[in-house]
Write a structure and sequence with these properties.
The complex is a heterodimer. Chain A has helices at residues 2-22, 40-50, 52-56, 91-100, 115-118, 123-134, 158-165, 179-189, 195-198, 240-249, 262-269, 274-286, and strands spanning 65-68, 71-74, 147-148, 216-217, 224-225. Chain A is mainly alpha-helical. In chain A, the strands form 2 sheets. A 3-stranded antiparallel beta sheet of chain A has the order 1-2-3, with no helix packed on it. Chain A has a two-stranded antiparallel sheet with strand order 4-5. The longest helix of chain A has 21 residues, at 2-22. Chain A is globular. Helix content of chain B is 73%, strand content 0%. The mean pLDDT of chain B is 86. Classes of the chains: A mainly alpha, B mainly alpha.
Chain lengths: 296, 149
């Protein structure tokens, strides 16, 4: 009997050690950063491509609450306030947050913060983005913590999740042939993080690459998220020009206006250069057409 | 045969009359009016997108359609028409009538300004139509619910 208990605890200990090891936060070191002169102007266009204010609020002071099947996420203050924002962060800390999902004190971020997309950005662009954000006005606002259900409230577990879902390789294989589509892919799959809403998630909250941008039920509640692939359920009838014009003006080809959460997204894409909007449109015409995802 | 044609003609004549005579609900009336506004926006948008050549007369015709709509649109949301007929009107129209009226007024003013400007080239059209489109968006954001077709 005693040896059975002993065995049980040994196995448990090994499992805990494996979990602890496998879920450990992995981050970049100082030597991984390139020497780079930050370019805040480039950072500004990435800021609009990412639509940071849509979640972090006008002024980036945070406070938005996101209801999800895992609980309530409270979006933090990322304004350059030194006390309640991220004004004290180094470039390395910012890059680790954006691309590895690791906080300056070494904890995992929940992927409600879409670092799985930002991981596809170049480090140079990420540093430029920080340079632009540093130029904004600080907002003093202490945000409350997330309120998540078990087992999602165990942060360490995200380390395992990342092993499966944090992969910076691109989704669309362009064959390296078209520079415009590649620029669009970079913006859409990286800073623009389109898929974080437009791609349905699996049971663990990871994006389903096989249903890339095919839309589905709205995880935040009522309604559906549109399919934006070139399928007849999606944007097949939209020309590339239509897509670019929509992102600029907020008007669909039928002259209806943008609605729902996309309003704030579009207000950001409206600030992008013509070439970037054309690139996004080219990308959306180039991805595989997929039928809409129906509710199971 | 002769009689058949007579009946057919009578029916054709009656059809538009019967449409006018049918007492239309405010929900349907405003829906139709909105579709007219949308249809008028299409050619202007196509010019702005570069899909259609600039045409001052066509643009002006759209402005006129909008002006007519702006003049009567506010009357089509009486108490009691909050729901029904699959209306996409949001409750805020009745709970925040002042805000709704203000944005309608802004729409009408932007249209009047566009008519006065009488744009003669694409750049001028952009300047004239931009503020109108802005009011479309603002009003839809605050006072419309989107329903799947």
């Amino acid at each position: 009997m005693r040896s059975v208990i002993k065995k049980f605890f040994s196995v448990m200990l090994v499992l805990v050690l494996i979990f602890w090891f496998a879920s450990r936060p992995q981050r970049l070191a100082h030597d991984d950063l390139p020497t780079h002169q930050p370019d805040p102007a480039n950072g500004e266009s990435l800021f609009y491509a990412g639509g940071c204010v849509s979640c972090h609020g006008e002024g980036l002071g945070g406070g938005l609450e996101m209801e999800s099947p895992y609980g309530v996420f409270r979006v933090p203050n990322i304004s350059p306030d030194k006390e309640t924002g991220i004004g004290n962060w180094t470039a390395l800390q910012f890059v680790n947050a954006m691309q590895k999902g690791i906080s300056p004190d070494g904890r995992h971020y929940y992927p409600a913060f879409p670092y799985t997309s930002y991981a596809r950005m170049t480090i140079e662009d990420t540093i430029d983005l920080k340079a632009y954000m540093d130029s904004l006005s600080p907002v003093n606002n202490r945000t409350a913590n997330h309120e998540l259900y078990f087992p999602w409230n165990i942060r360490r577990g995200i380390g395992l999740w990342k092993r499966r879902y944090l992969d910076p390789s691109p989704i669309l294989d362009t064959g390296g042939l078209d520079a415009v589509i590649e620029r669009g892919r970079y913006l859409a799959e990286g800073p623009g993080h389109c898929a974080e809403c437009h791609t349905p998630r699996d049971e663990f909250g990871g994006l389903q690459a096989a249903r890339w941008l095919a839309g589905g039920a709205n995880p935040e509640g009522e309604g559906t998220i549109p399919n934006i692939t070139p399928h007849s359920d999606g944007l097949a009838s939209w020309s590339a020009k239509d897509i670019a014009y929509y992102l600029r003006s907020g008007f669909t080809p039928d002259f209806d206006t943008v609605g729902g959460s996309m309003v704030e997204v579009q207000e950001n894409t409206a600030q992008l250069a013509d070439a970037d909007l054309a690139a996004l449109a080219a990308y959306l015409k180039a991805i595989p057409a997929r039928p809409k995802t129906t509710k199971e | 045969m002769h009689r058949f044609i007579k009946i057919l003609m009578a029916l054709l004549l009656l059809f538009p009359v019967s449409q006018v005579l049918a007492a239309e609900s405010p929900q349907e009336a405003r829906h139709e009016l909105m579709e007219g506004v949308r249809d008028a926006a299409k050619p202007v948008g196509e010019m702005l997108k570069g899909e259609r050549d600039f045409n001052a007369a066509v643009a002006m015709e759209s402005f006129q359609t909008w002006a007519e709509a702006a003049a009567i649109f506010g009357d089509l949301f009486p108490e009691g028409s909050e729901t029904g007929f699959d209306t996409e009107a949001r409750a805020t129209i009745w709970t925040d009538r002042e805000g709704f009226n203000a944005i309608l007024l802004a729409f009408g003013e932007a249209v009047d300004a566009a008519i006065t400007a009488n744009p003669q080239d694409l750049e001028a059209l952009k300047t004239a139509a931009g503020p109108v489109f802005k009011t479309c968006k603002e009003c839809h954001e605050g006072y419309r619910v989107e329903k799947d077709d």
